[in-house]
Amino acid sequence: KRNRLVDRTRASLRQMVRRAVTSPNDRMRIGPCIMRQLVVWAKADALLGNLDDNDPKGRRQAILITAFGMKSFTDAYSVALQLDTPPREQRALIEGWLGKLGDAIIAEFTPPSAPRPKKDQWLDCNANTRYWGASAVGLVATLTQDNRQLDWAMNVLHTGLSESSADGSFPAELSR
User: Fold this and answer.
1) How would you label 11-24 residue by residue, b for 16+ Cβ within 10 Å and e otherwise?
2) Most distant CA pair in the chain, distance
3) Contact of 156 with 140, CB cutoff 8 Å
4) CB 108 within 8 A of CB 60
5) Which residues, 6+ apart, have CB-to-CB distance to 160 below 8 Å?
6) Whole-model pTM?
7) Which tens digit of pLDDT belongs to each residue from 149-163?
8) For helices 128-144 and 88-109, what crossing angle results, to 10°?
């Protein structure tokens, strides 16, 4: 219930992307429509509010909603850029918002300088959720040309690859 608006928006964006690819006659209308939807979310700083009002587990869940949704947002934005040349103000607004989402993911998956309480130390372990987060940040970084975010995502990728078995599995994930 809490994720309904995010899920509906992601579905709408995915549908517009699919239609842009499969319906050439609709492409010129789809780009501006995607941009309008992304601008609304960007102006609202969607998915960024009240993150720190959660306990550590709730904050992680909120960040994961963002990470799992990032592909829909970045795919739609990429398609809109290919279909049209949106105004610079819209691009700056959306890219600023995507960058803030990427920074929130990085902050969540970067262990704090002071150790967390023992009950929350699991948040600082490498796990598939960290790799999802890095994937989301990598998508943003390629669109926004943010080298700092791309470096972070690539470092997490290299960590994940170094921890994977020859068959591609993650032993820590399988042990759970």
Assistant:
1) eebeebbeebeeee
2) 57
3) no
4) yes
5) 126, 130, 131, 134, 170
6) 0.91
7) 999 999 999 998 888
8) 150
C-beta separation of 101 from 66 below 8 A: yes
Q: Which residue has the tokens 């009002």?
A: 53
**Quick one: CA dihedral 142, 7, 132, 101, positive or negative?**
positive
- Could you tell me the sign of the dihedral formed by the alpha carbons of 54, 127, 111, 121, in that order? positive
Note the pLDDT tens digit of each residue in 2-57.
Answer: 789 999 999 999 999 999 999 989 888 999 999 999 999 999 999 999 988 999 99
Cβ–Cβ under 8 Å, residues 31 and 13: no
Report the alpha-carbon distance of residue 109 to residue 43 in Å, rounded. Answer: 25
Instruction: Report the alpha-carbon distance of residue 16 to residue 95 in Å, rounded.
Output: 19
Rounded distance between C-alpha atoms, residue 123 and residue 104, angstroms: 15
Query: How far apart, in whole angstroms, are the C-alpha atoms of residue 68 and residue 73?
Result: 10
3-state secondary structure of 170: coil
State which amino acid sits at residue 161: L
Q: What is the pLDDT of residues 95-124, one digit of tens each?
A: 999 999 999 999 999 999 999 999 998 898
